[in-house]
Amino acid sequence: MSLKSHSALICSNQSLFRTGLRLILQETGWGEVLEAPLEMSPAAQPMSLLPLGIVVVDASQAWNQCLDTVSQIQQSQQCSPVPVLVLSANKEPRYVRAALDTGARGYVLEQASKDEFRVACLAVHQG
User: Fold this and answer.
1) CA R_g for the chain
2) Highest-scoring range by mean pLDDT, 5-14, 62-71, 105-114
3) Which of 2, 61, 109, 117 has a Cα at 20 to 30 A from 11?
């Protein structure tokens, strides 16, 4: 599967964190990687000419804001849900369940390796 025809969006309030994730996603082969602060509404998210293949939402600093962002992203997509991956430090199953119930397709821990993060992104993108 070619990722060059899809864009990725990283939602995080941490600029340095977004930069690191962008580099990993670009290395993996995504056509375009966009970045936005977590609190930015889906309507104000950066737009790409490529279809959105994945959104990575950082839950490390604001759990409720993360869930709100996931929910808003899914509500803004009228045709089909966007593949959302939540990146979190929370290992407890209740956090995983809350993210999935809100519309995320995947959940990966911040402690994951670069390869584990890549596999999670591809799995979420592929459904």
Assistant:
1) 13
2) 105-114
3) 2
